[in-house]
Amino acid sequence: MSMLRSILQRLRDDERGWVAPMFVVLVPVLMLATGLVVDGAAKIQGNIHADQVAASAARAATAAVSGGAIRNGSMNLNGTAAYQAAMDYVNSSGFSGSAIVSGNEIRVEVWSDVETMFLGTSLPISGSATAALITQ
Fold first, then answer.
1. 3-class DSSP assignment, residue 41
2. What is the pLDDT of residue 112?
3. Which of 17, 82, 83, 96 could be a cystine partner for 64, CB 3.0 to 4.6 Å?
């Protein structure tokens, strides 16, 4: 009986070989956590960049004032030129987008995809901004 007890005691106290199963479980979990952090950060940075592109496109569009500004001093946004300026900026930035001109205000929305490093897919990013022509 004491021999059986001695064998069971040795088996219970023997920790050889326990590192491998722990390694097999922890490495995929840590890789997944790292992947989520890196790919999540890429999406957040992509959305920030999309907002910046939309804001810059909207600001560029407000430079398209009508010809009346020179003739009689009336500052109005030339809708066609403003739309074209915004879309030119969006397209040159590598984004897809849309622009809506309403009076002396323009709203620009942009979208694209960002490639992930760990997930092996792409995530959608988007941004929007509004700019108005100040006539004071």
1. helix
2. 97
3. 82
Indicate the SS3 state at residue 101.
strand
- SS3 assignment, position 89: helix
Please list the ranges in the chain whose pLDDT falls under 50.
Answer: none
pLDDT score for 25: 85
Q: Which residue has the tokens 């009986």?
A: 1
| Collapsed DSSP state (helix, strand, coil) of residue 103 | coil
Which 8-state DSSP code applies to residue 77? B
List of residues 6+ apart from 44 with CB closer than 8 A:
none
Q: How many CB atoms lie within 10 A of CB 39?
A: 19
Amino acid in position 113: D
Strands 122-132 and 105-115: antiparallel
* Rounded CA Rg of the chain: 30
Residue with tokens 């569009």: 61
How far from 90 is each of 12, 49, 57, 98, 106, CA to CA, in Å? 67, 12, 6, 9, 13
**Residue 125 to residues 4, 45, 46, Cα–Cα distance (Å):** 65, 9, 6
